[in-house]
UniProtKB/TrEMBL annotation:
PROSITE patterns: THUMP (PS51165), UPF0020 (PS01261). Residues 46-157 form the THUMP domain. It comes from Algibacter marinivivus. The keyword Metal-binding does not apply. It comes from the Bacteria. Keywords: Methyltransferase, RNA-binding, Transferase. Gene3D superfamilies: 3.30.2130.30, Vaccinia Virus protein VP39. This is RNA methyltransferase.
């Protein structure tokens, strides 16, 4: 029987509940929601599974030691005392990142440096040789987390952030993070049972994440590498078995996923990324200006998009957001439209009353995910049926 251990899945603010649900559905034990993270328990195969299958996680950490710390020297001593030979060879490479929430320590880079010193000094003293630092492709990526006086040392099983799915070779001016895109679609409640549209699709991230959700395709199948593949206990057979089992749970999708963008370059990029993700059977990308389009057919439409915020694009935001409202109202009956924006002033010009507002962050920008319900005919007419 494989041994269970504790893990922490990190996520974006506002996605904790989604991640908690994902972990529970995958079969995690002792699931507990935190702020921007969810802790849980599972075995090595489950750690592989989480990295492959979780849509809203950005990292899976494996804590290996925790202690109270009173000074930089105390930190050095306690890290030096650990048995690092279980995780790394003296000829190996390492990288360290640190997050600090403490009045005792102020510089995360200094803490990372102190941790590195303790580890390499230990190897030099016991083996006569020391591991080197490799920030890009280390054999072991270590996470140091100090909260007030409590220090937790974890192994980073993911390596690069899990938003780097592996399908995106082309991006546009303001690409949306893949984890953020997946989380927005999940928060919108889309379940693959209706048509889906992103009317300002950019490089196609929202479309690809929607297709993977609809077909239950694990989001990180195309990643080149996870950090755990360089660990001493890496089990390639177990990993392939987990991968195969996840692939066996994919499902058919019988609706349409449509993307529009008015920039030909964005349309080309989106098509390229869709092809990379091998999802061209499900996704149709067209060169269209959303404001000049209308909904085709009577089928229910679910729309999720990321309009410009005015951060990097020089456009009249008030007029732009007013156009979003007009186009939805006049041309898209029978549509649930969701979009995220950090331009809270421009949002007032949509001219429609949102039925939901959810506070999120896009990178460091405080944002709102808003929902507008466009009824068939008038709203009054709907209730009188």
């Amino acid at each position: 029987m494989a041994e269970n251990f504790n893990m922490v899945a990190k996520t974006l603010f506002g996605f904790e509940e989604l991640l908690e649900k994902e972990l529970t559905q995958l079969g995690a034990m002792y699931v507990k929601k935190g702020v921007r993270n969810v802790s849980f328990s599972g075995d090595k195969g489950f750690m592989y599974k989480c990295n492959l299958a979780l849509r809203t996680a950005v990292k899976i950490l494996k804590p290996i030691h925790a202690f109270n710390v009173n000074s930089e020297q105390d930190l050095y001593n306690k890290i030096y005392a650990m048995d690092w030979s279980k995780y790394l060879k003296p000829t190996g490479t390492l990288a360290i990142d640190a997050t600090i929430h403490s009045d005792l320590f102020s510089h995360s880079l200094y803490i990372a440096q102190k941790t590195k010193d303790a580890i390499v000094d230990k190897f030099r003293d016991t083996d006569g040789q020391r591991p080197n630092v490799d920030l890009k492709f280390p054999d072991l990526k270590i996470n140091v987390h100090i909260d007030r006086r409590r220090c937790t040392i974890s192994l980073d099983s993911s390596g690069d952030s899990l938003h780097k799915r592996g399908y995106k070779t082309a991006t546009n001016i303001a690409p949306i993070n893949e984890v953020l895109a997946a989380g927005l679609i999940m928060l919108s409640g889309w379940d693959g049972q209706t048509n889906f549209m992103d009317p300002m699709c950019g490089s196609g991230t929202m479309l690809i994440e929607a297709a993977m959700i609809a077909c239950n395709i694990p989001p990180n199948l195309m990643r080149k590498e996870f950090a755990f593949e360089r660990w001493q206990d890496w089990d390639v057979e177990l990993f392939e078995k987990i991968e195969e089992s996840l692939l066996g749970k994919t499902r058919d999708f019988h609706h349409k996923i449509i993307g529009y963008d008015k920039a030909p370059s964005a349309v080309n990029k989106a098509k390229e990324n869709v092809e990379n993700a091998q999802l061209e059977d499900f996704i149709d990308v067209k060169h269209e200006d959303f404001f000049k389009t209308q909904k085709g057919g009577d089928e229910k439409l679910h729309m999720v998009f990321n309009p410009p915020y005015g951060e990097r694009l020089n456009i009249d935001m008030e007029e732009f957001y007013a156009n979003i409202g007009d186009t939805l109202k006049q041309n898209y009956p029978g549509t649930d439209a969701w979009f995220i924006t950090s331009n809270l002033d421009a949002l007032k010009h949509v001219g429609l009353r949102p039925s939901r507002k959810i506070q999120l962050y896009n990178a460091k920008l405080e944002s709102r995910l808003v929902k507008y319900v466009m009824y068939e005919g008038s709203k009054k007419g709907k209730y009188m049926k």
